[in-house]
Amino acid sequence: MKAMILAISFGMTAAAVLTARSAGVPGAEIKQSEPEPTADPYLWLEEVHGERALEWVREENAKTIAVLEKDPRFPGIRSEALRMAQAEDRIPYANFTGGALYNFWQDSAHVRGVWRRTSLESYRTKNPVWTTVLDLDSLAAAEKANWVWAGSQCEMARERRSLISLSDGGEDASSIREFDLITRAFVPGGFFLPKGKQNAAWVGEDTLLASREWNTGEVTESGYPFIVKRLVRGQSLDDAVEIFRGDAKDMGVFPFTMMDGQNRRVSMIVRSVTFFENEYAIVRRGGVTWLGLPKKSEVQEFFEGQIIVRLTQDWVMGGRTFRSGSLVSFDAEASVKNPEAIAPVLIFEPGPRETVSGVYTTADRVIVAIYQNVQGRILVFRRSAGDRWTANRLPLPDNLSTSVRSTEAKGSRFLISVTGFLTPSSVWLGDAGTETAVPIKTLPPRFDASACAVEQFEAVSTDGTKIPYFIVRPKGMKPDGNNPTILYAYGGFEVAITPSYNENAGRLWLERGGVYVIANIRGGGEFGPAWHEAGLKTRRQIVFDDFTAVAQDLIRRGFTTPRRLGIMGGSNGGLLMGVQMTQHPELWNAVDIQVPLLDMLRYEQIAAGASWVGEYGSVSIPEERAFLASISPLHNLKPGVRYPMPLIWTTIKDDRVGPQHARKFAAKMADMKLPYLYYEVVEGGHGSGANIEQRTHTTALEYIYFIRQLMD
Q1: pTM
Q2: Domain end call among 314, 349, 384
Q3: Is the same domain home to 529 and 508?
Q4: Do 344 and 358 have their domain in common?
Q5: Are residues 452 and 554 in the same domain?
Q6: 32-49 residues labelled b (16+ CB within 10 A) or e (exposed)
Q7: Cβ distance 329 to 309 under 8 Å?
Q8: Does 302 share its domain with 423?
């Protein structure tokens, strides 16, 4: 469930896969203070499609292109990025559906993409035979629409019908249409939900639960739906029957359905009161039964009649304390009869340097992905008599990231993604029954990893906490402080940043002698809920201090110097970049600020910002407003300070964070006569572009920027 809410509410950009005030540190004397209330001179830039704002964007884009694209190295970098992104030997990641494997694919011949399928036997071969299910380029041309693929959801019992989500230019808002997997066509007169930020779930082949803006204005302050209705085949939207109505103060209300291997299904509603606090109900024909789960918990899966939940707070039940971060299960039928007396059973309790990263089910096993000190493990659990859970670890390579991509709901097989900084990504086929796994797809090397080394170090933050970070560097690199280095982190929303194979970083940066670093700072989910909660709201300065500590440790060890050190982060990580630039301008010579939050005094009023009050706090609370003002990058640009020249980029179609933050920050820098580069991608939603060419163009802009700032 958390993955679904993250997907519709907040997240990192595709480019983010790469990439404060401490005593005695030069520049720490820059005072962060609450600004005097004044009229906002940049409000006109919040009109996303306003002509004046768009003209400003066109002018800024032209200025940036004149600098970065005119660099003689740019065409080669863009060509390399595009070649890798369009290569036919990429891994076609797939999902089990209806006895086949489905994959969404983009290349030079399918710019918008094609949804296709093959058999498992064919998938395991070097050149699978694919059957086109839906050609998005043809559909967009026929309908004269700017369609971007936004996913599919198959009806679980028969696996014949699917709900296809299509977005206009990559926005989070999408249209939902019913599709027949057998005929490979949209169902005439089938389910159709017009464009909106919405969610739908199959109850049966002829019934949906849906939450959407049923009437104008029926959305939360965050812009998400709060009314769930039951929609029966053949009904108009006006005739749908209301099941539950939340509140406009909620983050959102969303229905979902789960089914176990014995074809038992349970339909539920999650009322997300805040981003991290949820209330869950089971939907039956006779009504809705709310469960007595702790507010900070996340329903994960349904297995043998048991609902599996991940806790993000301690839960005392039946005289026993279940620790935050643990997985528990309870009987769904019994919980309906007595929702306040749920009898949870412990499945797994992570250790202090462990976290659960994903929960999945096959017909008779539960697959749990965990991280131990930021390194992946896959555990296979079985449930025996007396509600006893036992587990075995799947034999997979060590020192890599591992995650489950898809499972056979009615079988025993599942697909695993395995990746590492220097290890090309691969797909493994697991079998829960035999508890084995074998590699079936491997990405060919994209750069010379034999010339590189990976190390893990720890920096000490301002409160004494040790902050781990990975450094990927050329072998034989001298600790002379002259190494061009990119430092990346995210630091929010309990999102863990783990090792991954980044072909762009390898080919475009490492092979040029560059170094890149990933910092596992607090605010993320690398070590469970406590690691995240340490940086919530007014405690968030410690997240920024963690990042600064890693930078200082890199300098202390002789890996780099401020002249050669650049930083990169997107979305929440874009806020991190803005704070680092304003709090410690002396530490960096390049700051790549991707689809960011930067105006923290108005973030609640921009796009989906109100949904993140649980993470950042609210300006309506004096103490929290004072803190937000003290760290807000837009409000803490100071005259007379020498800042590094940042690259600030966003997208017009970003309806999650919104381009307003980036625009206003760049405009203020312009008024202060400060150097900067600004670029706004035409489409792509909360990311770097809607298709391969757009995304690789943005990537090329970033790398030529870093080369110019750190290597020249």
Answers
A1: 0.93
A2: 349
A3: yes
A4: no
A5: yes
A6: beeeeeeeeebeebbebe
A7: yes
A8: no
Q: In what order do the strands lie in the sheet with 241-245?
A: 199-204, 207-211, 227-232, 241-245
Q: Which of 532, 635, 686, 697 is catalytic?
A: 686
Contact 481, 515 (CB under 8 A): no
Compute the distance between CA of residue 307 and CA of residue 184 in angstroms, rounded to an integer: 34
Contacts of 156 (CB under 8 A, 6+ apart): 202, 257, 259, 265, 409
Residue 33: C-alpha distances to residues 623, 666, 706 (Å): 13, 20, 31
Q: At CA 112, angle to CA 109 and CA 118, rounded to 5?
A: 70
DSSP state, residue 34: P
Extract the tokens encoding 552.
């200082």
pLDDT of 8: 34
Q: What is the pLDDT of residue 7?
A: 38
- Cα–Cα dist 323/300, whole Å: 17
Please pick, among 425, 571, 611, 630, the residue that the annotation labels catalytic.
571
Q: In this structure, how many other beta carbons lie within 10 angstroms of the beta carbon of residue 351?
A: 12
Residue 530 vs residues 290, 457, 596, 647, 691: alpha-carbon distances, Å: 27, 21, 25, 33, 37
Same domain, 553 and 639: yes
Q: Is 1 a member of any domain? A: no
The bridge status of strand 227-232 relative to strand 278-284 is unpaired
Residue 571 within any structural domain of the chain: yes
Distance CA 590, CA 709 (A): 6
Q: What is the pLDDT of residues 569-583, one digit of tens each?
A: 999 999 999 999 999
- Residue 157: what residue type? A
Q: pLDDT tier at 3 (50, 70, 90 boundaries)?
A: very low
Determine, yes or no, domain membership for 78.
no
Looking at residue 494, which CATH number applies to its domain?
3.40.50.1820
The arithmetic mean of pLDDT across residues 586-613, rounded, is: 98
Sort strands 515-519 and 485-488 into parallel, antiparallel or unpaired.
parallel
Burial 61-94 (b: 16+ CB within 10 A, else e): beebeebbeebebbeebbebbbebbeeeebbbbb
* Total count of domains within the chain: 3
Parent domain of 408: 352-441
Residue ranges in 278-337 assigned as alpha helix (H): 332-337
Task: Identify whether 666 is part of a domain.
Answer: yes
* Residue 682 vs residues 440, 650, 689: alpha-carbon distances, Å: 37, 9, 8
Residues recorded for the chain? 712
Residues 521, 603 contacting (CB under 8 angstroms): no
Phi, psi angles (nearest 5°) of residue 329: -135, 155
Q: Which strands sit side by side in the sheet containing 278-284, from one edge to the other?
A: 252-259, 265-272, 278-284, 287-290
* HSE-CB of 445 using CA atoms within 13 angstroms: 9
Judgement on whether residues 396 and 530 belong to the same structural domain of the protein: no
Q: Does residue 686 carry a catalytic annotation?
A: yes
* Cβ(407)–Cβ(414) below 8 Å: yes
CA 49 – CA 51 distance, rounded (Å): 6
Contacts of 689 (CB under 8 A, 6+ apart): 170, 651, 681, 683, 695, 696, 697, 698
Domain end, chosen from 303, 332, 349, is at 349
Give the Cβ contact number of residue 303 at 10 Å: 25
Instruction: Label residue 387 by pLDDT band (50, 70, 90).
Output: confident
Q: Let me know whether 475 and 567 are in one domain.
A: yes
Please, what is the Cα angle at 496 between 508 and 169, to 5 degrees? 65
- What per-residue confidence (pLDDT) applies to 285? 87
> pLDDT tens digits for 397-427?
999 999 999 999 999 999 999 999 999 999 9
Residues 262 and 342 in one domain: yes
Strands 114-118, 100-105: pairing is antiparallel
Decide: 616 and 600 in contact? Cβ < 8 Å.
yes
Give residue 386's pLDDT: 83
Which contiguous run of DSSP H or E holds residue 319? none
Query: What is the token pair recorded at 456?
Result: 């893990």
